[in-house]
What does this fold into?
Amino acid sequence: MPPRSAEHLRKLSIANKGQIPWIKGRKQTSYHIIKRIQSRIRNGTDSKNTAPRGEKHYLYIKDRTLLKDDSKDRGGQLHREWSHNVKNRDGWKCRISNKECSGRLEAHHILGWIAHPELRYEVNNGITLCHFHHPRKRNDEIRLLTYFSNLITKAN
It folds into this structure.
């Protein structure tokens, strides 16, 4: 790289007037980068900070209840509420509850999700099982259907 001319150095000094030199002779780390970005955001000089937010954003939905229409989504809000209600009804314990119980609790549909869409969010169509007792195959679900139904009717 050729040496810089006096004119070039003068232009650089004018362009960088008032700026503190970047940590001279030290390696730039992610800590320094994060701190620099945080200070830009704090000072309002970061260009990424100018995106529209809240009601000005083009995806904003004023009526938040419209977000709960997720009847075809198993991971949605309605399914989470159903799962929580089933576990509350069963006292947050596996309904089979024996010495083999292990793993996290799961809310299981007694009558299948696909075959019975009208019962998807019925609390009485669910049962709380630990991971060990949760059926892994469709044949196991069919075989245990009457057993699960009897457990639910006993509790009610």
